[in-house]
Amino acid sequence: MEKGLLIVISGPSGTGKGTICKKVIENSTDLEVSVSATTRKPRIGEIDGVNYYFINEEDFKERINNNDFLEHAFVYGNYYGTPKSNIMNKLNAGISVILEIDIQGALKVRKSHDDGVFIFILPPSLQELQKRIVSRGTDSEKVISNRLKCTKEELEFAVEYDYVVLNDDLLEATDKVRKIIDVEKMKSHRNIDLVEQIKEEQTCTKYR
Questions:
Q1: In sequence order, which residues have a C-beta less than 8 Å from that of residue 7 and are 6 or more positions away?
Q2: Separation of alpha carbons 56 and 37, rounded Å
Q3: Which residues touch 160 (CB under 8 Å, ≥6 apart)?
Q4: Closest by CA position to 100, among listed 10, 161, 178
Q5: Which residues contact 106 (CB under 8 A, 6 or more apart)?
Q6: Which string of DSSP letters, residue by residue, matches 43-79?
């Protein structure tokens, strides 16, 4: 059985990463989005275990000490991390997993999983990005100001990713991410076992 792909998607807050991830996995049986853990408080409508695993800081730090995270980072005043065991079990079962994580975490994952697929989501403009964040109505003015301040710094890291997708149109951006995943699945180094399997098949020795 071929292992699943580890797909890492990042980008500044408000670029639509979460929405793209949800649409990419629609009607898919071999692709899932990983649920991250965080110490931040749930936003209105968010559900524990669905959007995030919401845990307290003491519990999070204990899990860090136990090496329970594939990656973890301190972002915008809160801890975020990706539970390791769930990811590895899915990949070994042939299920591809999308990690929607911040840039700090993505760069850490790159060091330990250089065979992953790294995709950076771009906003159409900084003005549009600000409009999206404000329209969510979930963050204070201070938080919004801090996130916009960090955006230009975060954009500098786009070159560290394999692909850059502009989210000017949600459907087009989603389609591009799907195509990237399809292409990555067909790369030769991911299909060595399949090639060897076919090579080992017995050929027919009788001819008419």
A1: 96, 97, 98, 99, 116, 117, 119, 181, 184
A2: 10
A3: 106, 107, 110, 118
A4: 10
A5: 8, 10, 71, 99, 118, 160, 161
A6: PTT--BTTTBEE--HHHHHHHHHTT-EEEEEEETTEE
Taking alpha carbons only, the member of 118, 115, 117, 91 closest to residue 103 is 118
Contact 160, 104 (CB under 8 A): no
Backbone CA torsion sign across 13, 15, 18, 21 = negative
Closest C-alpha to 174, from 165, 162, 185, 183: 165
For the chain, give every domain's residue range: 6-34+95-199
The architecture CATH gives domain 6-34+95-199: 3-Layer(aba) Sandwich (3.40)
C-alpha 203/C-alpha 88 separation (Å) is 37
Length of the chain (residues):
208
Query: With contact defined as beta carbons under 8 Å apart, do 194 and 41 qualify?
Result: no
Residue 13 structure tokens: 């807050």
pLDDT tens digits, 6-31: 999 999 888 899 999 999 999 888 99
Q: Count CB neighbours of 118 within 10 A.
A: 20
The pLDDT tens digits for 140-163 are: 777 767 777 778 889 999 999 999
Contact 15, 121 (CB under 8 A): yes
Determine if the pTM surpasses 0.85: no
